[in-house]
UniProtKB/TrEMBL annotation:
Catalysed conversion reaction: ATP + H2O = ADP + phosphate + H(+)
GO BP, one annotated term: ribosome assembly
Domain Helicase C-terminal positions: 232-396
GO MF term set: ATP binding; hydrolase activity; nucleic acid binding; RNA helicase activity
Family per record: Belongs to the DEAD box helicase family.
Coiled coil: none
GO-annotated cellular components: cytosol
Domain Helicase ATP-binding: 43-221
Name recorded for this polypeptide: DEAD-box ATP-dependent RNA helicase RhpA
Length: 464
């Protein structure tokens, strides 16, 4: 039997939820006093030990909705002993991306400052040794991406035998990214007598099937209609194409004095190129995408959170899980191919009840994507006109010279167009594959056979 709660919660404060004073103090330090609807409904149910399926639009505070009650439930198990054996893993939080894992870990650390509970975060793309050491020292809460967690399990760095709470955060995203086999392997290692919390943007048929498989009589908490966009985010679309899009970003940032703006591009090569050109135009910008190392991505995010960047240019890797207070504006430089990604993108602004603005650019042949988005969100996005300042003649000459001097720029655009056909950032959609050393094809060493060298090069390049 599943209970369903559709939120129309009366105004309450965090103090009304029965949380420990140490947790309340940490929440107050963040500046929040009134819980969001998903928090107000989920926290009491989680504290009762019930399984929960929670659905809420992005940016509504799902992380705190499970983090706070988990810490509350683990309070009786908190131990100040230095012995690793006294700190077994009690709660496991699984997330689809490294950035989201890091974000959740920050929340856990912030809210548990005055509680003797240990936490650790593990994800791929960084050195495994510090993570191994943290796990072996013992910790009650582990936040992890599925693939790296399986690496640690295989290396016997962590035991899940005493996990009492499992959280599947952004469960729909994990299914989209092909993590179901990994999740199944992990769940089989957990005690059957546990509390399971599943949070998702929507309750799709696949999510409901997952809930029936892994949850026991869950309480359903849904606080927004599926694919709704936040009412406090104003939306507008401007018909622009080519270099006018970049000029529009520069104009909007400079004329409005904007800082911490997220600009979404569909391709990795387009993301890097746009960030470089914005820097050339005098805008402090950095890019984040799957071809960058984890260290570089984390540096870019930290600079963005600190307010050192005017613009963060991102692929959809940042559309979920990136929680930065005060993002005034999100710009869809490229409209997403998947209409649902638009909802997640613009959810980066207007968070925690603040107002925000979502701007979209579209060329004539891209308007069909805008129509798909409007059909999904069941709302008309207003069209507008943007008056851009005239480009200086020097810039015009540079642009003209650049377009006629060589074919490299044309090749770059052609490659970007070809790459743009890929709907998602494939770096983050690959299912878990156990670490292995792969052989690298070697070119013939003999200089005598030039034909053999050319033939081998042709094979490596796919015949191009």
């Amino acid at each position: 039997m599943t209970d369903t709660i559709i939120s129309d919660t009366p105004q309450i404060t965090f103090s009304d939820l029965g949380l420990h004073p140490g947790i309340l103090q940490a929440v107050a330090a963040t500046g929040y006093t009134v819980p969001t609807p998903i928090q107000a409904k989920a926290i009491p149910v989680v504290m009762q030990g019930r399984d929960v399926m929670g659905a809420a639009q992005t940016g509504t505070g799902k992380t705190a909705a499970f983090t706070l009650p988990i810490l509350q439930r683990l309070m009786p198990l908190a131990n100040s002993s230095a012995s690793p054996a006294r700190h077994p893993v009690r709660a496991l939080i699984l997330t689809p991306t490294r950035e989201l894992a890091d974000q959740v870990a920050e929340n856990v650390s912030r809210y548990s400052e005055s509680i003797p509970l240990r936490s650790a975060v593990v994800f791929g793309g960084v050195d495994i040794a510090p993570q191994r050491d943290a796990l072996r020292r013992g910790c009650e809460v582990v936040i992890a991406t599925p693939g790296r967690l399986l690496d640690h399990i295989e290396q016997k760095n962590v035991s899940l035998a005493q996990v009492g709470i499992l959280v599947l955060d952004e469960a729909d995203r994990m299914l989209d990214m092909g993590f179901l086999p990994d999740l199944d392997r992990i769940v089989r290692l957990l005690p059957q007598n546990r509390q399971t919390l599943l949070f998702s943007a929507t309750f799709s048929p696949e999510i409901r099937k997952l809930g029936r498989t892994w949850l026991k009589e869950p309480v359903e908490i849904e606080v927004a209609r599926p694919n709704a966009t936040a009412e406090n985010v104003t939306q507008i679309a401007y018909p622009l194409s080519g270099d006018a899009k970049r000029a529009a970003v520069v104009h909007l940032v400079k004329s409005r004095g904007l800082n911490q703006v997220i600009v979404f591009s569909n391709t990795k090569i387009g993301t890097s190129r746009l960030a470089r050109l914005l820097e050339r135009d005098g805008v402090k910008a950095e890019s984040i995408h799957g071809d960058k190392s984890q260290l570089d991505r984390m540096k870019a995010l930290e600079a963005f959170k600190a307010g050192d960047l005017e613009v963060l240019v991102a692929t959809d890797v940042a559309a979920r899980g990136l929680d930065v207070a005060g993002v005034p504006c999100v710009i869809n430089y490229d409209l997403p191919y998947n209409a649902e990604d638009y909802v997640h993108r613009i959810g980066r602004t207007g968070r925690a009840g603040a107002s925000g603005e979502a701007i979209a650019f579209f060329a004539p042949d891209e308007e069909r994507y805008l129509l798909d988005i409007e059909k999904l969100i069941k709302a008309k996005i207003p069209r507008g006109t943007l008056e851009l300042p005239a480009q200086p003649q020097a810039a015009t000459r540079r642009s003209s010279a650049g377009s006629s001097s060589s074919g490299r720029e044309r090749s770059s655009r052609a490659y970007a167009d070809m790459s743009s056909r890929k709907p998602v950032d494939d770096f983050f959609t690959k299912p878990y594959v156990a670490s292995s050393v792969s052989a690298t094809p070697q070119l013939p060493k003999s200089a005598a056979s030039g034909k053999a060298v050319r033939k081998q090069v042709g094979v490596l390049l796919g015949g191009r």
